[in-house]
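Sequence in, structure out. First:
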Amino acid sequence: MSALKVLLGIGTSSTWCGCSCSCRSTGGGPATAPVIETLPADASLSKTAGMPSRRSLFWPSVITLVGVVLTVVLGTWQVQRLTWKQGLIEARARAVAAPPIPVPERVTPEQEFVRTAVRGTFDHARELHLTGRAYRDRPGLHIITPLILEGGGVVLVNRGWVPNAARDPGQRAAGQSAEPVTVTGLIRLGSQRTWMQPENEPARNNWFYVDVAAMALATGYGDVRPFLIDADATPNPGGLPIGGQTRLDLPNNHLQYALTWYSFGLTLVVIYGIWVRRRLREQG
């Protein structure tokens, strides 16, 4: 019987989940109403109530960190490219400003854009046409002619630009002198074909990029120097071709690129900070 009273909570005093319940056991009287006691709030909850959970911050933080690191790396790479490009521009300026050198047998990459002076006779019958070239927004082509050197050997000379209407040498007969001439210009090593350019067509005398070896083969000469000379702007008889077509300027936008990447990184940090602050307000 006493065990049953214990199970029914009669004549006992118990505390459960913060509630103190006392029931009379004498005379079979009714149990008294339970008294509810409120437990104090957990101090740790009060400290973290205004902070977003770690889980909610984890992936945004990782993504922001990766983005910032990536933009800093790319910005620093552009700064390095800026230093490299400035050195290249300065080296080219020094080469162009230096006095002309005798035409060499061979050249190194460091000698590109060095000025040289040569004397010989043009073989106009074997001129080559470098198509798709413009001059002051006018379409045309460059005339590349083998020059037979007085000391022996042959060098290809880019004599300059002519309009498409003057592709036929008969349209510019005044500039087709058969007399020995002195040519001053810049040493060039040719160019690589870009993905936008078609293949050269030697059989049709259509050249879209400068392949010195293939051009030398097309002239039929054996002893051709492995480089090209871009003639300077000295006027030719009759006004054509127009020399001095070498592009000496180099695009140098690396500083702008670096600042752009760094600004992207800063923007990510600002956005992340605003987002965290908003979460704090929502949970505060």
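Second:
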Amino acid sequence: MQACVCEQIVKSTQKIQVTLDKKKYGKIVTIVGGFDKGIDIKKVAKGLKNELACGGTFRDNEVELQGDHSKKVKAALMKLGVEEE
């Protein structure tokens, strides 16, 4: 039970940043970063991809999602239990 409390503390102190980037051939990618080290980035990436119905990947403590999801990411993160400060 105590591990869950620590995870909640870690989640509440992070500062999530959402940016858009244009990749090869003009494809738009949403980049979600700023996660703390205690967060399982693979689990967050999988949850975001399922919630937003898109493809994507994770690397360097960031999640890359295919397409422009900048308006939907905050709600999806709240659903997954990751708080944006």
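Remark: Confidence is low (pLDDT under 50) at residues 1-11.
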